[in-house]
Amino acid sequence: MKTLTHFFLLLLLSMFSLFNLGCPDEKKPPIIIPPTPTNCEYPPGNRNFTWRLDTVAWWPSWLGGVHAFSDSDAWVMGSLVSPTGESYVGWHWDGKKWNEKVDFLTILMKPNDVAGDDNYMVSVGYLMFTGIRPAIAEFNNRTKQWQRYDFAQTPGELRSVWTDGKGYFIAVGDNGMVYTKDGYTAEWVYSKAPTEFNFTKVTGINKNEMYFYAHKFLISGESFSQIWKYFNCNWTKLLDTQDSVDMAIQISEAGSQVNNIAVSRCSITDSLLIYIVGKALYEFSTEGHSLVFKKKELAALSRGIGYISLFSPKDYWISALEYQLYHWNGSNLQKIEPIPTLPYGQLWGDIRSIRKGSSGKIWMVVEMSSQVYAVIQGTP
Fold this sequence. Notes:
This protein is mainly beta. It has helices at residues 2-21, 104-107, and strands at residues 50-57, 62-70, 73-81, 87-93, 98-102, 110-116, 120-129, 131-140, 145-150, 158-163, 168-173, 177-182, 189-192, 198-206, 209-217, 223-231, 234-240, 258-266, 271-278, 280-287, 294-300, 307-312, 315-320, 324-328, 333-335, 350-356, 362-369, 372-379. Strands 1-28-27-26 form a four-stranded antiparallel sheet, with no helix packed on it. Strands 2-3-4-5 form a four-stranded antiparallel sheet.
C-alpha cells in the first residue's frame, strides 16, 4: 500500500513538472530608451490671472522691489511712506493683508532692489550718513533676523541684485561697483568692473556666467548704454551706444535706445539668447560663448519699454510707462489689459519689475502716480 501511494505521489509530481515545463516564462516588457533631446522644451507662459492691487506707499516714496518666499509670505522693499506720514523700508504680505512694517532703524538703509530664494533675501541700496554709500540688508526667513552691511570704501548706490538660488548673490551699482557673496555665511567681496558707467541691472545663467546693463548720463543731456558679459572671471563688453566700434551686439540708429536686458541659455544646445528692450524688442542669439550674434527684431514699440522680466523664452513680460504691459507666450506678443483698478489713460503709470513664485503667481510693482506705489498680485 505504501508503495502504491509513493508511486502516485511521484506521478503527480512528474505531471506538475511537465506542466510547468510546457509554459514559457512571462516576457518582461522591453526597455525603451527615450531619444536624446535635441532642444530645450518650454511650455507656453500663462497670461490669464485673477488680479489684486494694493497700494503700499504714498508720496514721497521710492519702491525698490518685491520678493515672495511663497504665495502667503512676501516682502515689498523701498523707501515707503504711509498716508499718515509714517516711514518704513519693508512691508510684509501674510497671504491676506500687508502688515509687519520694517522701520528704517532696523536696517539703516534705503533699498533699491531685492532678490532671494526659498529662505534667504537680499536687499541692496544705500546708506545716508557721511555721504551716500552702498549698503546691503539680508533677511533669513528661517530665523526671521535682519543683518546689514555698509561699505565706506566705495561711494554711490547699489542698484540691482541677482541670485542663482543656491546661495550666490551679486549686487551691482554706481561706477561699475560689484559686490559678491558666495554662500549664505560668506562675507561680501568688492570688485570693480572695467567701466565708469552705473550698473542698473544684473542677471545671469549661473555664478560663472552673468550679464550687466549699465547707463551713463552726460551734462549735455545725452545718455548712453552698455551691456557687459562676465564669464569665468573675464569681462567682455558686448554693446556700447557711445562707441559702437567692434561691438559684438549692434543696434540700428533708429532703435538705439536700450533700457533693460534679460538672458536665457539652453543647456542641451548650449545656445544663448539675450533680449534687449528699448524702442524695440530684440533677440540676439549665439552658440556656446561665441561673440557672433544673430539679431532678430521681435516688435517695434510706440513708446520706450523700460523693463523685461524673463522666465523662459516662451514666457516673458515687458512693461513701461502708461501701463504698457505685454506678454510673450512663444507664439505672439499680446498687450495685457485691463487689470482692474488701474487708471488707464493716465500719462504716468509705470509698471516695474515682475516676479514669479513657484506656484505660477506673479507679483508686479507699479508706480500709480509720482511716488505712489502699488503691488499687483496675479493668481493663475
